[in-house]
Amino acid sequence: RNFFTKRTKELKPAVQSAPGWKLFGKVPPRENLPKDSKIIQQEYEARTGRMYKPPPPSTRRKNIAFEPLSTTALILEDRPANLPAKSVEEALRHRQEYDEMVAEAKKREIKEAHKRKKIMRERFKQEENIASAMVIWVNEILPNWEGMRATRRVRELWWQGLPPSVRGKVWSLAVGNELNITPELYEIFLSRAKERWKSFSETSSENDIEGASVADREASLELIKLDISRTFPSLYIFQKGGPYHDLLHSVLGAYTCYRPDVGYVQGMSFIAAVLILNLEEADAFIAFANLLNKPCQLAFFRVDHGMMLKYFAAFEVFFEENLPRLFLHFKSYSLTPDIYLIDWIFTLYSKSLPLDLACRVWDVFCRDGEEFLFRTGLGILRLYEDILLQMDFIHIAQFLTKLPEDITSEKLFSCIAAIQMQNSNKKWAQVFASLMKDNKEGDKNHSPALKS
Fold first, then answer.
1. 130-147: per-residue pLDDT in tens?
2. Any bridge partners for residue 72, and if so which?
3. Which is a GO BP term held by this UniProt record (predicted)?
4. Is the domain of 192 the same as that of 113?
């Protein structure tokens, strides 16, 4: 205020000599003297003949036990002085509305508190179960693995999910090491991969890449690097600079040198990443190589179309048996299993399901083998059957390609448990074997030698 007062005094002579302007014609200049708020109020009262009355003090109730911090409490406020006061009936109605709002807010708060307590109780119970299961696995099962692995008690405990502390060890034992790979062999192939990457980066050119074989191109450093950056991107641990980036790169590179006939195929990075999270580097490579050597994985990663079609046909046998309505719905749109199953089988559900749920699927997969991969697929279809029955081809494909993120292990495994892997008293292995037999007989019937 002092600042503007001084400026006004200093500029006063100049303002008096300067003409004032209006839109149409000249007007004499006006003095711009500061006025006190009381003077402005007195001038207003003199001009209008009204006396200013300060607003009455608020009669809002104090010490209310609970007030929501929102505009709903405004219904208890009195109206401004220039508006008519509330009637008794309206005030009572507002009071009633306010009490109802407060009661609803309290109910929601109590409900949410009960929900949080329930979640905490379930979490504590789950942790206690994991702790007790871990003691059984460490002290009883693992020391006597060969004798106890097939017992009913162990299989039931296995179905409930492996404790994270023993998961890697059980996976290694269940997958086995038929290839007899040693940590020293892993180091040899890793050094070969590093040499190849070094020479590839130094001498790579367009002609070299065009002249390379399919396996060499798929095993190139660039393709593996690209896939690593896409592996569990939300975790960031496999991204460049992350703690597991180089480790994943090493395991995948060593495998491409170990199995040049298979090479690197997109989707392998997810399997290797899950193993790295649960095993040491060399053990992860050993489990990875043996896992991809299983008939189902080898058929898919080698893109053996004939074998893949047999797996899809076996899957459809049990699909029709367990979910006939959904099977017919898919048939009406010519929606074949390869549209959604390839991605699930390629990554062993590690890309399609939340990581903790995917690990539990892996637990039982290591117990039951390839059959459980297709049983899990049927469990997913059963879980979302009602939704899928209302969708068309495009929406079904989109839905199954990207499953909901809120899928829980309890719901999924209850649906998997309801799936019966038996058709006309034939189990998965028998159905698949009969399909393979029919295929061989069909090949014989179509052979030129037999026709001649």
1. 888 899 999 999 999 999
2. none
3. vesicle-mediated transport
4. no
